[in-house]
Amino acid sequence: MNLETIRYSQDENGLVTLTLDDPQQSANTMRQQFVEDYITVVDHLEANQKEITGVIITSAKPTFFAGGDLRELIAATPDDAPAFIEFSNRLKRAMRTLETLGMPVVAAINGAALGGGLEIALACHYRVALDNPATRIGLPEVTLGLLPGGGGVVRVIRLLGVIEGLTKVLVQGQQMRVTDAKEAGLIDEIAPNTEAMLAAAKTWIAENPKATQPWDARGYRMPGGTPNHPTLAANLPAIPSTLKSQTKGAHYDAPHHIMSAAVEGAAVDIDRAFEIETRYFVDLVCHSQQAKNMTQAFFFDLQAINKGGSRPDGYDRWIATKVAVLGAGMMGAGIAYQCARSGIEVVLKDVSMEAAEKGKAYSENLVKKAVQRGRITQEKGDALLTRITPTDAYTDLAGADLVIEAVFESADLKKQVFADTGPVVNPDALLCSNTSTLPISDLALGVSRPEDFIGLHFFSPVDKMPLVEIIVGKQTSDATLAKAVDVVLQIGKTPIVVNDSRGFFTSRVIGGFVNEAVAMLAAGINPIMIERAGSKAGYPAPPLQLVDELTLTLPKKIMTATRAGVEAAGLEYVPPPAEPVIDKMLEAGREGRSGGAGFYDYDDSGNRQKLWPGLFDMFDIEDDRTLHADDVDQLRDMSERMLFGEAIETVKCFDEGVITSYADANIGSIFGIGFPAWTGGVAQYIDQYPGGTTGFVARCKELTDRYGDRFIPPPSLAARAETGEPFRPPGAR
Amino acid sequence: MADAYIYDAVRTPRGRGKSTGALHTTKPVTLVTGLLNAVRDRNPGLDPSAVDDIVLGTVEPHAEQGGVLGRTAGLAAGFSESVPGVQLNRYCGSGLEAVNQAAARVRSGWENIILAGGSESMSRVGIGSGGDPWAMDPATNYDTSFVPQGISADLIATVEGFSRHDVDAYAVESQGRAAKAWADGRFDRSIIPVIDIAGQVVLDRDEHMRPGTSMEDLAKLPPAFAAMGQMGGFDAVALQKYTRIEEINHVHHAGNSSGIVDGAALVVIGNEDAGSQFGMTPRARIVSVAAVGSEPTIMLTGPAPACRKALDKAGMAVADIDLIEINEAFASVALKLMRDLGVDHDITNVNGGAIAMGHPLGATGAMLLGTMVDELERRDLNTAMITLCIGGGMGIATIIERV
Q1: For residue B156, what are the CA distances in angstroms to A454, A706, B149, B232?
Q2: Is A731 helix (H, G, I), strand (E, B) or coil?
Q3: Which distant-in-sequence residues (6+ apart) come within 8 Å of A78 by Cβ?
């Protein structure tokens, strides 16, 4: 056999070991060559089954198998459908042959088995996994807008049943730890080390000389029943509604197809079920724009960022050892937790010991919850907390090689705090400010070495939000930027890099979303409908709810600063349609959630209730609850106003050099400011719009005609639309 | 063009749709044979072999009420070998659909006399037991924004602003009217008691009624569809289409929704010749019929557009209608129909409705028609309009005129 990606060995007892080891990649993937090799091996096993007693499949890489070849998948066009169907069917036939030959096949899962990797393991009769806390097992294809097209849908349903299979594995693409995967029924056994794993595999083979899959055994009953079984039939109607409830009105191709393939496949025999799975798979691969968007964002762009895409070259990797967190409020407390979790010593400083200890209590609470959920051991939790030293004295900051300031949003206060900190910490300590609006270059003037000063804009809540927006000041050096990227990665966050300017990237771009939604109120649109339009567009938090979280004073501050800037430049300030709405609300004392009342009402504990009914009077909105014939069109306009508002602002950010990386713009928008995931990010949104930049700009004209000049596309984009060039140049970072 | 007349209307009483219900041990085929025998007995001049068809609506046409029940029952009743049968399904509107189709066929001049109605043994063949891709096929369900009808009813209440008090008050009135109508004997002409093989009466009155039901009684019932709305995601589906509503006000429960019951009904429809030929006196004329499609997620708002279509066809206005019968699938459906047409409760469902007496899915439309024929005669009034809301977002209506 001429194999490139699989090593075949057979011992004197007829036990075959297949070691997956792709010479061209650091992880095994389901590329064309692998599939050919797999088919070749299966043919060989079938031809020689008399001499073979069993098969162990394992990997020579740190991971078991990484999944489909996304480079191939993202390039697929509608014309490739027949080829993908053929490819899919050949692989599935081979997997089916392997599991029906009768010889026992065991997967020895030595590392991560995600997507295609788990599919290969599911086509084995027994699965033993190495007990490694870093290993993840699952079928995350849905998160890339795809579905497990290597028999994953079909086999998971036959193993776990329709409801369990959909909710625990397929629709959300959970990436499970080994213990959770065993509990879910995806793997059979956990081994403490490699020898034990292989021994367990051998033992199972010896004890099961003839093996069949559960679904091929006589008397097999699908767990939970097939679709025409009354118990499952009664629950079928709630499957799509549960999905729609989870996606809040946004349509996602992949979970829709997964749900359909799962149920439709459960109604027929397994071999016909594979055909159904293939159809839905190929539709996503060849026809779904969302699949292209999400694969680009969550695989390629995210990978580029995590490999330090925006990090200047030529600087050695830097590791922080001791961080001075200034300010123990919510942000500071969260930053302290994040740093301590990553092994960094933390000194958490505030004006009083009481405030500092309160900040540490935040971490104590998070640790308690994590231990309760079995996420970390008590020992590890205690060690984390030991790393955090609360203090009210600057002297305790000595020895810090990293400073992250998170005090009240006042330039004077921040400068003061840095002035006091500078002399105490290491003379070459990295100096970072977690400001969301104050210009970094100005804050840098308050330190003696502005080249070491940089912005690290965290998002709230810090332990949940993956993004950090790194802001490069006018004087910030490349070396500093490299260190900042390193430390963000060190603490497990995702860095994007932007240049100093008003609103940076995230706060500025989100303004596009917020302004449109708030402006709709001014135009007398029902606020309930505004929120629904936001959810339908795919925003995880609807706009008026989001503004309440941010507090209305924030957009007001930005608008005030914009006015000052515009008027200082001698130009006329045109207030955006949102401004009078914000003003009215602030006048009425409704500044948002923290103030107890905003667009929504809040109870005494700060829990959101319903939209404030007073909005109807204040903005002269009719309480009409009916469905209108043009609602679909109106909702589309509303959703696209929000999306276009952010996209146009993004183009301006690129034009002005605020941001230079398209990957950063995409990931930053999704992870930091809740831009809908199906779009692939705010820059991708433009290119994936029907008709590309040409279609996008044509729609800009429609929106301009209907809603105003703010939708006029920047000249740089209009120019691209002429030729149909994409916004993101091919190959651009 | 020939006219289509209603010569006779018969129905079984409605048994509770549970295993403890009076008609639970009566086979579906027997419910229908009983009515065929009654038609034969009450119309001795009618030659059964002259009947052109037996059209029966059944919404779960499988198992014991599967096949073509009308034909099967016709054979079982020895009605006449030469009379064919056909089964139809327009969900809850089936009984009236059967009547409307029969009327159209007679009016066409191609046929003379047809028995039309419906039968449903909900205690034996449960609602939904036959499956339905609209609800059960995930892609179809998703693409058409399906929600179960109870959610739709609550959605109507929310859109229209009907409170829990409003729908409960309607239900109390329905119970009161039904009790009085039974006490007055207003159904006596059409009710055919179900008799068993030993000659004993199995059931002779609608047993689902709870006379004396009060607001306090109903207030104790929790909303029946709140849990499925919230946990099943159906509220979300509805609100994603009805985007001006913040949340659904769940107000319906078993006490203000139609009862699940067993029952069957038949209407004798024929042209003028059939009357003279078989010594039957026409009681009413079918003036116009209509069926419409309407918004499927709110599902139950089809009656008003169906009524308007029937009125237009008849060249009539709402004010020309003396009595209205709207199936009380849920209280909000009746309240909405009255509001949409601008009619009062005093001419609507004057003898109570399905909230009190039950809704044997495939049969109800024919039962309501019979009720109207009887009541027009009793009150010496002229015109009635019968309408039902229907699953899938449809509506059906029939206008009759006493002759």
Answers
A1: 57, 33, 10, 19
A2: coil
A3: A286, A287
Closest chain B CA to residue A525: B244
A244 to B142: CB separation less than 8 angstroms, yes or no: yes
In sign, the C-alpha dihedral spanning A392, A398, A404, A409 is positive
In A, which residues are within 8 Å of B159 by CB distance? 625-626
Pair of tokens at residue A400: 């810090």
Do B378 and B319 form a contact (C-beta atoms < 8 A)?
A: no
Q: Give the containing element (helix H, strand E) for A582.
A: helix A578-587
Cα(B81)–Cα(A602) distance, integer angstroms: 73
Q: How far is A308 from chain B (nearest CA, A)?
A: 41
Radius of gyration of chain A (CA): 28
Give phi and psi for A597, each to the nearest 5.
-160, 135
Residue with tokens 């300590």: A429
Cα-based distances in Å from B286 to B106, B236, B268, B283: 11, 42, 12, 10
Query: What single string gives the DSSP state of each residue in B60-127?
Result: S-SGGG-S-HHHHHHHHTT--TT--EEEE-BTBTHHHHHHHHHHHHHHTTS-SEEEEEEEEETTTS-T
Find where tokens 């000041």 sit: A473
In angstroms, the CA A246 to CA B232 distance is 11
SS3 of B399, please? strand
ipTM of the complex, rounded to two decimals: 0.94
Q: Are A147 and A281 in contact (CB under 8 A)?
A: yes
Compare all CA atoms of chain B with the CA of A611 and give the residue at the minimum distance.
B246
More confident residue, A308 or A649: A649
B233: distance to nearest CA of chain A, Å? 5
Helix (H, G, I), strand (E, B) or coil at A597: strand
Beta bridge partners of B203: B194
The CA-CA-CA angle for residues B216, B222, B227, to 5°, reads 170
**CA-based max dimension of chain A:** 89
Above 90 in pLDDT, residue B43? yes
Q: Per residue in B176-186, pLDDT tens?
A: 999 999 999 99
User: Which residue among B147, B232, B244 places its CB closest to the CB of A242?
Assistant: B232
Q: What is the DSSP string of A494-533?
A: EEEEEE--TTTTHHHHHHHHHHHHHHHHHTT--HHHHHHH
Output the DSSP codes for A638-665.
Answer: HHHHHHHHHHHHHHHHHHTTSB--HHHH
DSSP B203-214: E-S-TT--TT--
B201-203 and B194-195 beta bridge pairing: antiparallel
Q: What is the DSSP string of A34-85?
A: HHHHHHHHHHHHHHTTTT--EEEEEESSSSSB-EE-HHHHHT--GGGHHHHH
Residue B288 backbone dihedrals phi, psi, to 5 degrees? -160, 160
What H or E segment, with its residue span, contains residue A243? helix A238-247
The whole-model pTM stands at: 0.95
Interface of B with A (CB under 8 A): 128-129, 131, 135-139, 141-142, 146-148, 158-159, 161, 228, 232-237, 239-247, 295, 298
* Interface touch B135/A237, C-beta < 8 Å: yes
Render pLDDT for A543-579 as a digit per residue (tens, 0 to 9). Answer: 999 999 988 988 888 888 889 988 999 999 989 889 9
Instruction: Please report the pLDDT score of residue A617 as a whole number.
Output: 96
Q: Which amino acid, residue B23?
A: L
Cα separation values, B162 from A621, B152, B333, B335, Å:
21, 13, 10, 8
Between CA A122 and CA A130, with CA A124 as vertex, the angle to 5 degrees is 80
Q: Whole-angstrom distance between the N-terminal and C-terminal Cα of chain B? A: 18
- Residue in A119, A6, A125, A3 with CA at minimum distance from that of residue A55: A125
Tell me the two tokens of residue A243. Answer: 């999905």
